Amino acid sequence: PERRSHMERLRTEQPKGLTRAGIRKWGMLFLILGMFGRSIILNCYLGFDNLTGDQLLNAMNTDSDVMAAVTFALISLFVEACGVPIFCFLLSEGMVHTSNASYYMARIFGVAAISEIPYNLAISSKFIDLSSRNPAFGLVLSFVLLLLSRRYMEKKPVNVLLRVAFVVAAVLWSRMLSIADAGAMVIMTTAFWAFRNKPNFRTMVACGAAGICVTMSMFYLAAPMSAFAINLYNGEPGTQNRAFNYAAYPLALLCFGIAVMFL
Description:
There is one protein chain. By secondary structure, this protein is mainly α. Helices cover 74% and strands 0% of the residues. The model has no long low-confidence stretch (mean pLDDT 86).
C-alpha cells in the first residue's frame, strides 16, 4: 500500500507532456539524422560535392541503389529541418528563464566556435572552409537579436520599426556571413519570442514563419511538423545535464567528420 501511494503521488506530481530536456532530445535526434544524410550519404557514398546535377540524375536513372540513397538523404534533410524550430523555441525559452543573458550567450558562442572545425570536416572534408559557417552561429545571431529586441518592448511605433529593422539586419548578416540555416532561425526565433506569452498562437505563428522560410530552402516544408513536439511542452525544465547538452552537437559533428575522413 505504501508503494502504491508513492507511485500514485509521483504520477500526480509529474506534469504531462514534454519538458525542455525532452524537446531538446527530439531536436538533437532530428539534427543527427540530418547530418548523417548530409555527410555520410551525400558526401561519402554519393560524392555529392564531386557530381554535377546532370551526373547525379543520370546516376539515379541507371542505378537503383543510388536512387535509394538519394531518397534517404532527402528524407533525412527534411527531418533535419524539423530540428530548427525546436532549437529556436528552446532559445526563446532560454531567454525567458536565464538569470544571466551574457553568460548564456557566451555558452552558445562557445558551442558555435568549437563546432566549426568538426562541421567543416563533416560537410566538406576540410578543416577550414570559408564558404559557410555552422548553424550554431545562427543561434548566436538570433540571441543577439533577442537581446536588442528586449530593450524596445514598449508598444510604440518607433519600437516596432526598430524591432523589424533588427530582424531584417539579422537576416542580411546571416547571408553575408554564410551561416547555414541562420536566416530561418532568425525568423522563427522572432516568432516564438513575440508570442512567448500566448502558447495557443505561438506554435501557429511559428509554423507560418516556417512557411516563409521555404523561400530559403524547400526542406522547411517539413519544419511545421516540429509543432507536435513543441505543443507538448509543459513548461518544466526536466532533468538536464548542462555539460552534455552543450557538448552533444560538436561531439556528433566530430564523429561524422572523422567518419567522412576515413570513408
